[in-house]
Amino acid sequence: MFDFSIKKAMSLTEVMVSTAVVGTLAVIVVPLMLKTTTNQEKYLYTKAINSFQNAISAVMSDYEAVNSSNFLPELSQNEDLRTQIASKMNAVGAVRSDSDSGTSSSTNPDFYSNDGMSWWNVPEVWPEGENYVDINVDVNGSRGKNISSDEATSTDKPDQLKMRMMKDGRVVVPEVGSTDGDWSVEMEYLMSRGSMK
Predict the structure, then answer these.
(1) Most distant CA pair in the chain, distance
(2) Is the pLDDT at 196 greater than 50, yes or no?
């Protein structure tokens, strides 16, 4: 026969120590997880700017252009600028041409890079007389919330952001308060990552 009168359980002290250990681990781990999640778009935006700048630099290197103040307009007279940049960014699938049906939008990007980012407003031909073109990127492609920096509210963390491609091949983000649009979200993302000043 079995004696069922002996019951084993944790003492109150053991329960309190276990709870304290779990609570301490939660205090350490949860903020780290939240920080990683909230900074994901910021990290990806910095990566997008660096990738785009590297692609343009690689195209310039192919054409042996150094410090050319008018490089991109000159290139687009003879070559499809969008295809050149997309090839350096390891585009996945076809690169949309301006003759394709539909308009360039977040649902119909110009191309997808192999890191899952969607790119649009990359010109095939440089617009005549323009010193810059604003490029849009969805840093996490279709996986994200798909909120643009222009549509975002104070509680949103947008994942569709913009950057400015200058005709000399530089990629910049205008200072906050510039006369040509609100770049406050993009600048905040860059400053919080410590990547640009």
Answers:
(1) 97
(2) no
End-to-end Cα distance, the chain? 79
Q: What is the SS3 assignment for 118?
A: strand
Pairing of strands 160-166, 171-172: antiparallel
Which sequence spans correspond to the domains of the chain? 12-193
Ramachandran angles phi, psi of 11, nearest 5°: -75, 165
Per-residue pLDDT of 62-102, as tens digits, reads: 888 766 788 888 888 888 899 999 999 988 878 887 665 44
Q: Is 118:155 a contact under the CB 8 Å cutoff?
A: no
d(CA 185, CA 154): 10
d(Cα 151, Cα 76) in Å, to the nearest integer? Answer: 32
CB 57 within 8 A of CB 23: no
Dihedral class, residue 122 (left if φ above 0, else alpha if ψ from -120 to 50, else beta): beta
Q: Residue 63, class by beta-carbon neighbours within 10 Å (0-12 exposed, 13-18 middle, 19+ buried)?
A: middle
